[in-house]
Design goal:
With 210 residues, the protein is mainly α. 76% of the residues lie in helices and 3% in strands. It has a two-stranded antiparallel sheet with strand order 1-2.
Length: 210
Amino acid sequence: MARRAWYNIILFVLSVLYVFLVGLLGEGGTKVLIYQLVISLIYIFSFMTIREGSGFTFTIPALMVVLTWVGYLFHVPLLARLTGVVATLFFFGVIVLLVMRIARSAKVQLLEFVESVNIYLLLGIAASILFKLVGELDSAAFHHAAGNVDDLSGYIYFAFVTMTTLGYGDISPASQAARSLAIFFSVAGQLYLTMIIAMLVGKYLGEKKE
């Protein structure tokens, strides 16, 4: 239990860095390098949080880390896109397993709350990866008031704005693929918040009655 808690705390810190802080850095190679480093650690600690009884092997995150750095160092766009697809599937698997774990938990403690936040952050990270992939395949997939969305932090921003249905309108999906993904993640984001809050509150009230 202690290890599981520490893995979730580390994953939370890494996700906060990836989503909120790295984007504050100026444009350039250093920012991209830090993004690559942080996402590699997120792969590893996402696996560590669900490795017990998940059926996952360390081969999966290790492979994604290798593909990430090979694609980055040798500038292989196709490899980077393949890594994005695999990473998205991996994150969805982690999210499902974490949701199932919370659903099976007998009590609502701090760990369950941290895992719930991690799930939401991972969903946003997965969304940003898919949006970036669509944007790279079709330069006209997104409309940006200031031009094209050519920075990862822009896709992270759009992912969470979409999931929260905030919709400032400065970035908007233009292609059918981008619109379909935007619909999916806006619905998924709202459904997750509704379901997880109902689940946690229900368990908490159940404990109080007992």
